[in-house]
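Minimal example, chain plus P-hydroxybenzoic acid.
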Amino acid sequence: MKTQVVIVGAGPSGLLLGQLLHNAGISNIILERQTPDYVLSRIRAGILESGTVELLREAGAHQRMDAEGLVHDGVEFLVEGRRIPVPLKALSGGKSVMVYGQTEVTRDLMQARSEAGAPTFYNVSDVALHNLKSDKPYVTFSKDGEPCRIDCDYIAGCDGFHGVSRKAIPTGVLREYECVYPFGWLGLLADTPPIHHELIYAHHDRGFVLCSQRSLTRSRYYLQVPLTDKAEAWSDDRFWDELKRRLPQDLAGKLVTGPSLEKSIAPLRSFVVEPMQYGSLFLVGDAAHIVPPTGAKGLNLAASDVNYLYRILCGVYHQGRRDLLACYSQLALRRVWKGERFSWFMTRLLHDFQEQSGFDRRMQQAERDYFLGSQAGLTTIAENYVGLPFEAVR
Ligand code: APR
Ligand code: PHB
């Protein structure tokens, strides 16, 4: 087989890149090791920056998002018992975020791809990347026990943190940066109306809380928990009781509880590799970087990488601008590091760090006081939350 771009991974990164390239007349094949149902069973975050929303519209996978997604012009913080609304739109020059689950984004992109008739091979194994330093790279894999090969011009490694693409780069080429946090998030999804019309990020001595939502009838809540905790040890009743203990009485009184649809614990980690390119291989999304979920940046940074790689490949195929390829890593990483910074900042601002010194605890309080108590502080939070602008590719 032959195509212009092989995309490894049919998560949101691979599917969004594939759709944009297909619409631009650039042929591509996606290879995914799981089944479509498995991909759609993963529950992830649900906040889209305005730039991500625009990109999904550009890809033509926006109809259901625009019909069913909820536009949020604000978000709320709850610290030291005080509720602090952050008017995102007013503070960011008119931008908002969209509440629309990543699972739904993935479903819409899968459907758009199947309607477009672009090829995806699900359930493949043994994906291996070859000749990455040449201009004739190729990818091998097994499908139904049969060995297959695809020759291509470029490979997009969209296969997440545990994928093969990053590992295909020889030792010594990549520099890794990592920060692991000493706690996890226990998430619960329930078909109950959200506690508040906006998201609430709360700091509490017993640990961080996030009150999020997927729709007007589906809520998503998170509690900071020790890494040693197991989700099975958290009955629904225990979760709801702990959530109420970490909320002020007026809010706790509004909480509607119900049976959980899903409950799981996720560790928190910041991770980046540099560079994001090796020869004809380009790393995209979670394959190159991970953020803690506190700033809702995971999917949005993946979309940011897709934005740059898509525009660069359009330049290459439509205008013969092969020189642009060398800009990918720098362009993508500049925005990635800013997203990493915001996620790290939000995580440090709002969680309980048991081991920290008395001085560090006071610093954390002063940071909350300053950032949430001044127009300048709230403005920097707002402009990062709605998403920093993309740079032009030229
Ligand atoms: N061969 C083929 N496919 C693979 C392989 C492999 N060896 N390894 C992993 N994959 C697939 C996974 O099964 C998955 O479907 O690659 C896909 C990667 O998808 P994600 O992990 O979702 O990563 P990405 O598309 O970059 O999405 C960005 O945003 O909110 C965050 O972490 C969250 O998934 C999210 C991410
Ligand atoms: C979610 O709804 O799952 C969610 C929202 C915002 C975050 C993280 C997760 O910062």
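The longest strand covers residues 175-190. The two ends are 32 Å apart (CA to CA).
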